[in-house]
Design goal:
Porin, globular, mainly beta, CHP02001, disordered N terminus
Length: 299
């Protein structure tokens, strides 16, 4: 937010928020509250319901998808998943991608066989200065999910596009991770690497530890993560886009309330970026603590 659903951003801090394979939202029998997909894209995919380590994943797979996969595995694995929602801020790995404003998002995931999927996520970015004043962000992903017993793993490639933005902003990223389920709880690790590209002023590496648990007898899932972003710098100005003040740590803690097909979310997101270390300019905005509310529905 995150097993893979994200690939989001999200996240990642997000629960990204962001678009992992949509047929792996519940690796073992779920409790009353469906298990959230691991935080991973976007947030990309996060930011989508994918294994993207998106930071603030306010668009996880819904409880209905997870329960359907239990009742009819074959049908769930072959179904096209379409989800839409909004949040009061779109955060990826602790940074706002929507200029601190409310954002809407739609994610589509198409299974290819039983282990692969293709997906796309569209998010309103509200003319975000972080992405060349883009009004919309589009994440395209191709992912693989496998597993054995209670262990699931995933890998995916994500292309992040920013149509209508000023300058060169499109970049690509690879993500991989694993999740271990035990009863109503799940722990996971995810990594994301963007090779050196002009759009991000160098390369970017992210690693995240995440956990989530359904509360027995209640349609509630609690979740949290801590992540670390680092990378090389070729262009100091462009590198501020994903690392405003250099390497930093982000974390998030939140809960989902499931009212199938609706999922309501509340997430606290923060980073250790010190205001005194931030350079002047728009990249310094919206990098600190924020309480984010969101809602998602599956069509």
């Amino acid at each position: 937010m995150p097993m893979p659903a994200a690939p989001t951003s999200t996240p990642a801090n997000g629960r990204n928020r962001g678009a992992a394979p949509g047929n792996a939202s519940c690796g073992s029998p779920c409790t009353n509250a469906a298990r959230r997909p691991a935080q991973p894209l976007s947030g990309v995919h996060p930011i989508f319901t994918s294994p993207l380590p998106v930071s603030v994943r306010l668009f996880p797979l819904s409880c209905a998808i997870a329960m359907a996969s239990i009742a009819s595995p074959a049908a769930a694995q072959n179904a096209i998943a379409v989800e839409g929602g909004f949040s009061t801020d779109y955060r990826v790995r602790g940074l706002s991608w929507s200029d601190g404003k409310a954002a809407a998002q739609v994610h589509v995931s198409v299974p290819v066989g039983t282990s692969f999927d293709l997906g796309a996520q569209v998010t309103t970015l509200r003319n975000s200065p972080r992405h060349g004043d883009a009004n919309v962000g589009v994440d395209l992903h191709a992912g693989y999910t496998g597993g054995s017993g209670l262990l699931r793993w995933y890998a995916m490639g994500v292309a992040r596009l920013f149509p209508g933005s000023t300058g060169e902003n499109t970049y690509v990223e690879g993500q991989a991770g694993a999740n271990l389920a035990y009863g109503p709880a799940e722990i996971g690790v995810m990594t994301a690497f963007a090779p050196s590209q002009d759009a991000i002023g160098g390369n970017n590496f992210y690693i995240q530890l995440n956990a989530q648990a359904g509360i027995p007898g209640m349609p509630v899932t609690v979740f949290g993560h801590v992540g670390k972003t680092s990378g090389s710098v070729d262009d100091p100005l462009k590198a501020q886009r994903l690392r405003p003040a250099g390497a930093y740590t982000d974390w998030a803690l939140g809960a989902d309330y499931h009212l199938a097909p609706l999922v309501l979310s509340l997430t606290y997101s923060d980073t250790d970026i010190a205001q005194a270390d931030l350079p002047a300019g728009p990249m310094a905005d919206h990098t600190g603590a924020r309480l984010v509310a969101g809602a998602m529905v599956r069509f």
